[in-house]
Amino acid sequence: MHQRPARLALAAATAAALTGGLLALSVSPATAADRADRADRAFRADFNGDGYGDVAFAAPYGRVDGQGMAGYVAVTYGGPTGLDPAHRTVVSQNTAGVPGSAEAEDTFGDALAVADLDGDGHTDLVAGAPGENGGAGSVTVLWGSADGLRDGTTVKAPAAAAQDNWGRLLTTGDFDGDGHTDLAVGAYDHAYVIRGPLAPDGTTGTAQRIGTPEKAFIVDALQAGDTNGDGRSDLVLTYRTDLTSAPSGSWSKGVAYLGTASGPDTSVPRPLHGGTSIALGDIDGDGHDEIALGNVFTEEDDHTGTPGGQVVVIRGSEGGPVNGDAPMAELTQDSTGVPGADEARDGFGSAVSIADVDGDGHGELAIGVAFEDIGTTEDAGATVLMNGSATGVSRTGARTLTQGTTSVPGAVEAMDYFGSDILLSDVTGDGHADLTVTAGFEDEGVGAVWSLRGTADGVTTDGARSFGPGSFGQSRTYGAFGAHLIG
């Protein structure tokens, strides 16, 4: 459902000290009926088990107890009126029960993933800190409970070679179909799938190294979903090759590995388009997840790129992703039905997300355009919403949202990057996916988040809310709050 966004090139800066204590205000626990209904709702994260979708936001460059760029994660719990920061948990590596300590440039929260990893009925949150120990990296599971997130466990790297930005990418899925959720962790140029269940005492299953069909310079994005409807998760990743080895072709490439009883089958790679963000979800309603690949690389960077970025949607089928020469959609801002214009370095595809907003059984596609100019205001950012249909991505009814859209809080400002990350997920419990948008560089790097409700008529700006680190009891200083989110 969710995506992994393009990494924003945010410069390091000084920030005021943040309190590292756990701030937790929970709502009442779920009934058995609530929990039984969770599978029918359009969300993945329910940390406190109350039946409403929750959302976690990272401030990977946030200062914690005087340590610059140590990073922290803030969770707000959903409810019938939507996201409310009054019901929250804020976690750093200085929080009681969380392993490690907040250190300069750890970037805790620079990658996030969610799943019930220990099978207790509560969603757990996984946070990567790729800057830990001088770039060796670390991965921490924060455990869900009736009171929300509490305590944590370190997921050790399975090999010395993995300790190269370990935790810079994360996703979850049941890749072997055994009923236990597995954890996929990206290092610099490869990944590992760690078989579940994962336990609070640090116990895990075996680990499988995941490489790329050709030597990767770096892995850019990692995501999971079920493209062939067999009940096993498939693993999708994008990577860059050495530019000198592809002087007349694409240096950004993608691959899908189908899930099997023994995990992702890396012996039969399914080549895909490249990109910097990935989302999986069912757009045409046939029971197979489509793959949306956002690619912000321009034609100057990547020979198959466009001036402003593109999103390629690959159809799912009984046989897995159908790529070939005819994807379900190849979208730029010059494509039919896509608002805007394909302009240099707009960042179209900076983030992608798929879920059903209007309840018609077809997933909508949300696309971040983080560096879109609004009028003469540079890099203000925007988000494009496109409808799903039985034939795929609809070319009618698309719309653009910015901070200049009526009833959207805030103002259009340069370098806000509205659309840094996006999420379609039901946080109100009404069966309609709601839209959460972040601007990781709002107010010169402080960062902020917007929450808009989904309805039978699509996303509405009526009652739209915005909040930043101050709403979570944190200092409104540089930290890139909302650079990443998940729910």
From TrEMBL:
This protein's UniProt keywords: Glycoprotein, Repeat, Signal
Stored InterPro entries: FG-GAP, Gprt_PLipase_D, Int_alpha_beta-p, Integrin_alpha_N
Signal peptide start and end residues: 1-32
Superkingdom field: Bacteria
PANTHER family linked to this entry: SENSOR KINASE-RELATED (PTHR46580)
Protein name per its UniProtKB record: FG-GAP-like repeat-containing protein
Native source species: Streptomyces fimbriatus
Phylogenetic lineage: Bacteria, Bacillati, Actinomycetota, Actinomycetes, Kitasatosporales
